[in-house]
Every structure is written in structure tokens, then in C-alpha cells.
Amino acid sequence: MALPVPGRIVEMLRRSTVEVLSGSSRVSGSGTGTILIEGQVVTNAHVVQGTPVTVASWEGDRLTATVLRIDERRDLALLSVPGLRAPASPLGDSDTLRPGTPVVAVGNPLGFVGAVSSGVVHSIGIAPPMNGQRGIYADVRLAPGNSGGPLADYQGQVVGINAMVINGGLAVAIPSRAVQLFLKRDGSGFKLGIVVRPVRLKDCSSGMMILELTPGGAADRASLLPGDVLVGADNRRFRTLEDLEAVTEGSAGAVITLDFYRAGQGSLRRVALSLDRKRNLSAA
Asked: Which is nearest to 30 in space by CA: 47, 55, 9, 5?
């Protein structure tokens, strides 16, 4: 479903979009990257599997990039590109999207640099292809080479990073809320010392089941146990793993209150715990 896109939005997004080339001349791959911070590029983790990594800008510059950080679970990577003269696009709020919202994607599908496609948001929700994370589904036409490019609204704000195409041709993008958490992570945050898995409760609400605890970690010291299901923090319910991460990473202090259910017990429990530095939260 092609929609007319304002020309100024397309021009701005193209200038903030780069081609990402990784690997040697014999084994190479290509994708797209999105400039959200000056001199840095966000792309998919699967785009930068090989080395070296090179970035080609819309202005024609070809520069060597360094991988600063990779999150395999979110399929995100952050690149440093010294000398990159392209502007950054503003990061929007994916939580404001609704089915039917017009969106536009820019990328380099099948070698066509700066290709543009448009459509509307189809749905937003948790999906198996996204490792249990929330994804933005849109009827935007994507092809190999679009991965890592921006999905933007008609104000030019990036609301997602395109990641894949699923059966039926729907594009799947990583929401900007998850991208924002990824960009905020600098290794200095906080950690709970747990490995969790998203689960669906009987009332259809979301929870995070604890699979493992780090001995002596914050959760272990608070007497949480494997099998406990975390459902909220600081009086806010969880919808996704990103909600739990937002509480730990965005907490102004080092103490949070967790709401949880214990296996075999129906009543909601609450515990306050002190967070440790250098967060260690993962999902299975």
C-alpha cells in the first residue's frame, strides 16, 4: 500500500541513512544503518557479522567503522564512524503508534541506494521472530539490504529500526523504545543478577519468569527464587522485557520495588532490593 510521502521527509531520512558493508571481498554482506547520534550509526547486529565494516553515506563518503556495542537479543549494533558528515534523525516514540499510522522506510534493498517505501502500521506486539520482544509490523515493502534502516513517521521521526520480513510480506521493525534503551546502555547501569523469560499469565497480562540467579546478586540477596514471575516494578506493570530494563536502567536511585508471584502461591508479593552496578539482565 504505497502512500504519498512528503519530499522533505524523504530527503532528510536519506541523508541520515547509510549503507553498511561488512566482511572481506570474498565473503561480504550489506545492509543499512541509521544515524541517530552524530558520528554514530545504529544497525542490526546481523548486518555486521563480518569485518572490516565500512559505511557509505548519502553524500558519497566511504568510511571505516568500528563496532562499539552489539545486542544480539535485540538484533542491534552501534557503530562509531569518525569523519561521518551526515546529520542525525530524531528518535520518535514507538508507543504512540497505532494500527493505520502512516510510516516510511528508507534503505538499500538489493543494491538500490536510498530506496523509499511507504505504508501503514499493521500491528504492534510480541512475536516469535523477535525473540519474544515487541515488534512493529507494517505493510512496507522491504528486501535484503533494508535491514538496519529507519522506519519513520510522517514527521520524520524514527520510530523503529527495520529488521526483517515475515510470511505475508509484513516488515518487522525494532521499536524506538527498545533502541533508546540500547543507546543508553554504557556498561555503567544497574543489574539484578537474573536471567528471565517472558511469560503470559492466566489473566493474559505479561510477566518475566526467573530462570537463573547470580549467587550474591541483587535478586538473590532479596530472596527471589527461580520460578518467581516478576510482574511489575515501582507500581508499574510489565508488558515486555524492555519495561523491566527501563526500570533498572532509568532508576534515579539504586533501590527498586518488584512485584512478583511465587510458584504455587496465588497472592502477589512485593520486595525492595538494592541494585548493583553494571547491569546483568538477559533473556532466554
From this structure: 47
Total residues found in the chain within this entry: 284
Cα→Cα distances 69→42, 83, 148, 190, 267, Å: 10, 19, 14, 17, 40
Q: Which residues of 114-151 are buried (b: 16+ CB within 10 A; e: fewer)?
A: bbbbbbebbebebbeebbbbbbbbbbbbbbebbbbbbb
Same domain, 64 and 107: no
Task: Name the residue among 74, 252, 93, 241 with its Cα closest to residue 177.
Answer: 93
pLDDT digits (tens, 9 = 90+) for 29-65: 689 999 999 999 999 999 998 889 999 999 899 999 9
pLDDT tens, residue by residue, 225-278:
999 999 998 888 888 777 787 777 655 457 889 999 998 777 899 999 887 665
CA angle, residues 235, 241, 244, in degrees to nearest 5: 35
d(CA 238, CA 243): 6
Contacts for 178 with CB less than 8 Å, ≥ 6 apart: 74, 76, 94, 133, 134, 242
Q: How many domains is the chain partitioned into structurally?
A: 3
Supply 100's cell numbers.
493505520
Place of cell 558519497: 60
- Residue 124, domain extent: 94-183
| Residue 86 resides in a domain | no
The answer to whether residue 58 sits within a structural domain is yes
pLDDT digits (tens, 9 = 90+) for 77-91: 999 999 999 999 999
Same domain, 171 and 239: no
Catalytic residues: 46, 75, 147
